[in-house]
Design brief:
2 domains; extended; alpha+beta
């Protein structure tokens, strides 16, 4: 015997808990039906799962990805570094990583050639630089000329050819507990190319709109396989940059004969 009397929904309206339980039960039923359909079909399980790129910086595990890392890590590919149009590795890093500061110095003797850079605003020698997981040596130049990072001895990143790099992993957090006191600001791990990277040559030319600062840069790399799983990779880079001069004659706004006399 059926009844045409409408259902009383006043109890559900008065109890939000009952409404939430009903929604959860209905959602679970739909999910169970979808899972059963996928199991019956079998096509979804056969699809391979694409994993993120495995990282080796800031972890002792061999299967950790960027998404699973406990620390902020940037994995920079060669395409990302070349997109900025600069031939210097350290300039590409400064334009890609917001916390990496690389100002241009002038008239600072040796610091003009080995320019210091900062990660997270700390001293240049407090950033650990690794090459394939091994420590990179610092330079013999100590910044004592009033430039950025005075009293430090940084690593010359521009001495590493850009053509030899496969990717760069940047740990933007202190890692002194794992690497030592030279990793207070972070870690930059440069992963070099292997023999399976092939062979390539790159040439770049540029100058400023004023006609000075002409740049000629040519780089290349090649790799060879030998033995059981061994390889030998060679990379080289040549850069020739002309000087840039923006000086001009001094034209004072006040005539020199009207300048105040200087006291002895």
């Amino acid at each position: 015997m059926t009844s045409n009397k409408p259902h009383d929904l006043s109890a559900l309206r008065r109890s939000p808990l009952l409404v939430a339980i009903a929604l959860v039960l209905s959602t679970g039923a739909v999910a169970a039906q979808d899972a059963a359909a996928l199991d019956a079909d079998g096509t979804e399980k056969s699809k391979p799962k694409a994993l993120d790129q495995v990282i080796v910086t800031g972890t002792r595990l061999t299967d950790r990805t960027v998404a699973e890392s406990l620390s902020p890590i940037d994995v920079l590919s060669v395409e990302q570094l070349d997109a900025h149009g600069t031939s210097e590795l350290i300039q590409s890093l400064s334009r890609t990583i917001p916390s990496f500061n690389f100002p241009n110095t002038s008239i600072t003797d040796g610091s003009d050639h080995v320019r210091p850079a900062q990660l997270r605003g700390l001293a240049p020698d407090q950033t650990l630089v690794l090459v394939n997981g091994k420590r990179r040596h610092t330079t013999a130049i100590v910044n004592v000329n009033g430039s950025l990072g005075r009293g430090s001895s940084p690593v010359d990143l521009n001495a590493i050819p850009s053509s030899a790099i496969a990717r760069i992993e940047v740990l933007r957090d202190g890692a002194a507990a794992q690497y030592g006191s030279d990793a207070i600001a972070g870690v930059i791990n440069i992963v070099l190319k292997g023999a399976d990277s092939g062979t390539g040559v790159d040439y770049r030319y540029g100058e400023f709109d004023k006609g000075d600062g002409e740049l000629n840069d040519i780089s290349g790399f090649t790799g060879f396989n030998f033995g059981d799983g061994g390889f030998f990779t060679v990379a080289a880079e040549y850069r020739d940059r002309n000087d840039t001069n923006r000086s001009r004659p001094f034209t004072p706004t006040i005539p020199l004969d009207q300048w105040p006399a200087r006291s002895a």
